[in-house]
Amino acid sequence: MNSTYFTGKMKMADLILKNFRLLYILPSFELGIGIGEESVKQVCEKKGISLNLFLLVCNLYTFNDYKPDNNTLKAIPLDALTRFLKNSHKDYLETRMPSIITHIMELVTSCHINHANIFEQFCKKYRDEVVAHFKYEEEIVFPYIIRLLEGKKSDNYDIKQYIVNHTDIDSALHDLKNIIIKYMPGDCSYYNSAREILIDLSMFEDDLEKHTLLEDKILISLAEKIESRI
Amino acid sequence: MTTLLKKYKVLIIEPSPVIQAGLTAILEKTSDFQIIRCFNDIQHFDNNNKDIPEYNIILINPGLVNTYRPYEIRNILTVSDKTILIAIITNYINPQTLGSFDGTFEIYNESATIIQQLRKIAGESSPKSNRVENIELSAREKEILASVAKGLTNKEIAEKHHISIHTVISHRKNITRKTDIKTVSGLTIYAIFNNIISQQDLHLI
């Protein structure tokens, strides 16, 4: 394993200094800043967070070439992982998306008054899709996985159905970025707000991509192994 | 050189069996042209489009398009932008129409001349990967996009425009490739911004 990846002995503050975007995932672990000189391990122990899970998430969100080995994967508590994913959903829906949507609406209303409602519809539709997507995971998939951990299968659900039903919520974000870059007015007075939106959208898109990776490659493949053993 | 390795894989769309057979005979003798299949008309080609093995050149009789007005061949034939379209000239064709082909040749020439002309056109048009791809939507693609943006299904679009579902899908693929927009809601915004549909159109659904 590459020695530059994050480990439990490192100072928590150094992780955030190395990758400021971890600031977005701290709330999903119910963590904040003001952590002094404490190591990652110390912070995790104090807050009752699985160190393995925390390091996995931080490494995955920071290093594009990071691939956890089997021992790392075995040490990931799936119930804690589903909790982290659920908290992220909440953060996306309650904080990040509303902020992006509000800014888009401000931009569109000020420069493209005629097009404001079409953007409003786009955002509303996208939000509905994301809500349905998360709802399916939280109400069907995660509870099923928790039951698997207790050694119980289900008669009418299995992991295969997740693989078939997992919808794509990334493409719409890409389309939106594309439209803003290509078709918003070139007028300088809108540049700053458009830039903020594009940066927010890009970071959100990246985070969603990692989030999907955690679900598809880690949660689901581990759950599939448990399912096959029951 | 085995036929599998021939560089140019050619389809012929031409109603005359004599011309089909003649071109096939001339080109099959060369080391670089291989005839993949012949069709009598565009309808026949469209219907079989998905089952045709890989090809990179179409020789087509421009008189097959039933119109008295000039037309853009790429709006009529559903093919990738990488396919080289060459007109088979047997009689007078509006020069404006011919301009939309990658090249033309006359069947009255000697075989050697025809082969040379075809090589020249194919050589100039390739390597295709270096050619800047045409990113403008064609008139036909804009019509299809308008229907997509209005929320019609592929089946409804096929019925409305009198084309096969396969052709609709192929147009949609090209639209997505050219605009880099995948979702229907994204395409709707694109269509409004580019005046392909108006907001009123959306309220009528």
Please outline what is shown here.
Chain A is an all-alpha fold and 230 residues long. Chain A has 9 helices and no strands.
Q: How would you sum up this structure, described in words?
A:
The complex is a heterodimer of chains A (230) and B (205). Chain A has two domains: 12-73, no CATH class; 77-229. Helix content of chain A is 69%, strand content 0%. Chain A contains nine helices and no strands. Chain A has helices at residues 12-18, 40-47, 51-62, 70-74, 78-111, 116-149, 159-165, 171-183, 191-229. In chain A, helix 5 runs antiparallel to helix 6 (116-149), helix 7 runs antiparallel to helix 9 (191-229) and helix 8 runs antiparallel to helix 9. The two termini of chain A are 32 Å apart. In chain B, helix 6 (139-149) crosses helix 9 (184-193). The termini of chain B are far apart. Chain B has a five-stranded parallel β-sheet with strand order 2-1-3-4-5. In chain B, helix 1 (17-28) links the parallel strand 1 (8-13) and strand 2 (33-39). Chain B folds into two domains: 3-130, 3-Layer(aba) Sandwich (Rossmann fold); 139-203, Winged helix-like DNA-binding domain superfamily/Winged helix DNA-binding domain (Arc Repressor Mutant, subunit A, Orthogonal Bundle), CATH 1.10.10. Chain B is elongated and about 60 Å long. The chains are: A mainly alpha (230), B alpha/beta (205). Chains A and B meet through helix 6 and helix 8 of A and helix 9 of B.
